[in-house]
């Protein structure tokens, strides 16, 4: 769905907020978020489950924990999906839609993939057996002053750094970088993708423009996750969200598809995930 806010302004305004005013969301904002979630869809036609939680939502009444990374937050959202092809990509896409919407409301969020009490949140969310649960985010009103931990976390994650175009976008194959000039009108969706957040800012997406399609690849993880979840697939979903929302804002016709053959000779360092096929 097209957004009722500027994609570029919202993407550039979004940042990870780790320190919040110690108060719950106002009922009006909670209602807006719930209504927005109810209308969320993704281009992969996969059901993504959202779980709105409060800080005392754990099964035994204890506070949900983030090991000190998040301070002051009362409200959280967890997200889960059944295992399957493009499930994690759909989760990343849908969750980032919500994050951008919250940003447009002036609310703070922060993608968390590891530094939280996973068992406590899992119990509070009442997950189905086998469901994939890679991330949560606080949702709240940013505090006026950041903690030193917040500056350190941003420095460690290199949050303000983004790869250059010639490192992530290619033309016809992986040997020839795609320039903004060559991308033409699609320079805008690609730039919004380039600015997307990712776990420890790895930006694991690689995009190859070939004929009438943009093919999305994931850089193969260098080590296996302890949770058995390839979080980088979620990251590519986040990037696809930025790309798609920007394309829809400009009324660029097309759709996401998983092709049997992209016609591109890929290296063994990447996995093909899906393509944006222009109409």
Automatic annotation (TrEMBL):
Which Pfam family would be a valid example here?
TM1586_NiRdase
Q: Where is the Putative nitroreductase TM1586 domain?
A: 7-247
SUPFAM superfamilies noted in UniProt: FMN-dependent nitroreductase-like
The Gene Ontology terms for molecular function here are: oxidoreductase activity
Gene3D superfamilies attached here? Answer: NADH Oxidase, putative nitroreductase (tm1586), domain 2
- Name it: Nitroreductase
**What is the species of this protein?**
Acetobacterium paludosum
List the top taxonomic levels of the source: Bacteria, Bacillati, Bacillota, Clostridia, Eubacteriales
